[in-house]
Design goal:
Blueprint (H helix, E strand, L loop, with lengths): L6 E5 L7 H18 L2 E5 L3 H6 L2 E6 L2 E6 L1
Parallel strand pairs: 1-2
Antiparallel strand pairs: 3-4
Length: 69
């Protein structure tokens, strides 16, 4: 983040955190994305975080589906 990337890739960034810390980190990432114009690609299995994303994609059985908020 020091070099102000245009894209942030995160694989399960909250995977080992409790709910409160996961939510805090996720809000920080969303804030960074909005304030610094950073695109983010986040891989997660956390349905609570998925629901907060403006756009989500699922890969299942070789097919991609999506949802836009």
């Amino acid at each position: 983040l020091v070099h102000r990337p245009r894209l942030l890739l995160a694989d399960e960034p909250t995977g080992n955190l409790d709910e409160a810390n996961a939510q805090e980190l996720f809000q920080l990432l969303l804030s960074l994305a909005n304030n610094e114009s950073i695109a983010m690609l986040i891989a997660t299995h956390n349905p609570v975080l998925i629901e907060q994303m403006p756009q989500a994609y699922w890969l299942s059985g070789g097919h991609i589906s999506s949802r836009t908020a």
